[in-house]
Design goal:
The complex is a heterodimer of chains A (114) and B (113). With 114 residues, chain A is mainly β. Helix content of chain A is 0%, strand content 53%. In chain A, a hairpin with a 2-residue loop joins strand 7 and strand 8. With 113 residues, chain B is an all-beta fold. Chain B has strands at residues 4-5, 10-14, 19-25, 32-38, 45-51, 56-58, 62-67, 72-77, 86-93, 101-103, 107-112. The mean pLDDT of chain B is 88. Classes of the chains: A mainly beta (114), B mainly beta (113). At the A-B interface, strand 4, strand 5, strand 9 and strand 10 of A face strand 5 and strand 10 of B.
Chain lengths: 114, 113
């Protein structure tokens, strides 16, 4: 299957700082990328959908000014958690797809805000 | 709003036995369903999918059954192995211009050696 890579795999940051997570499709061009958040022992919750070259569509309850998403190219989307707080600590997962093909998931990024 | 959910949070199965993981969905318009396996600290891994025009699909050691009448989905794993231990999610891939995957609650499968 296609490969989607996230970087970093884990990150620890201080409260009030911003952290950027990258999602790359390594062997295909992703027209659409999705960002999910997963708290311990819970399901994946969709945060936003991004299409290359356009603004991301955020799910209800997700602050777009706090979770900045950029999908500048067909192989890269970034999620920036701005002014992070301990409650933002979570497992962030992206998925990518081309057209109506199957979505492929990244390995996730563990964010810990201290 | 619409949701996809699971009833059993944890399922313990003896190695070699068959496992059945169940899922209920609420969106009657859903036309595509997927089962994912998630190991600890990793992203979801695609297992098998099924479209609403089918009621059964088989893969290698796995079978998905879809009952649209009662909006129920199940994943059967034959001859369960220790490597099958993980959390399993059913997901609905909604209609629309893009495929937005909505995940259910998840079932943790524990395989007892």
């Amino acid at each position: 299957g296609a490969v989607v890579s996230q970087h970093p795999s884990w990150v620890i940051c201080k409260s009030g700082t911003s952290v950027k997570i990258e999602c790359r499709s390594l062997d295909f061009q992703a027209t659409t990328m999705f960002w999910y958040r997963q708290f311990p022992k819970q399901s994946l919750m969709l945060m936003a959908t991004s299409n290359e070259g356009s603004k991301a569509t955020y799910e209800q309850g997700v602050e777009k000014d706090k979770f900045l998403i950029n999908h500048a190219s067909l192989t890269l989307s970034t999620l920036t958690v701005t002014s992070a707080h301990p409650e933002d600590s979570s497992f962030y997962i992206c998925s990518a797809q081309y057209g109506n093909t199957e979505a492929f998931f990244g390995q996730g990024t563990r964010l810990t805000v201290v | 709003g619409e949701s996809v959910g699971l009833h059993l949070p944890t399922l313990s199965v003896q190695e070699g036995d068959n496992s059945i993981i169940n899922c209920a969905y609420s969106n009657s318009a859903s036309d595509y369903f997927i089962w994912y396996k998630q190991e600890s600290g990793k992203g979801p891994q695609f297992i098998i999918d099924i479209r609403s025009n089918m009621d059964k699909r088989q893969g290698q050691r796995v079978t998905v059954l879809l009952n649209k009448t009662v909006k129920h989905l199940s994943l059967q794993i034959a001859a369960t192995q220790p490597g099958d231990s993980a959390v399993y999610f059913c997901a609905e891939n909604g209609s629309g211009g893009y495929q937005k995957v909505t995940f259910g609650i998840g079932t943790k499968l524990q395989v007892i050696p």
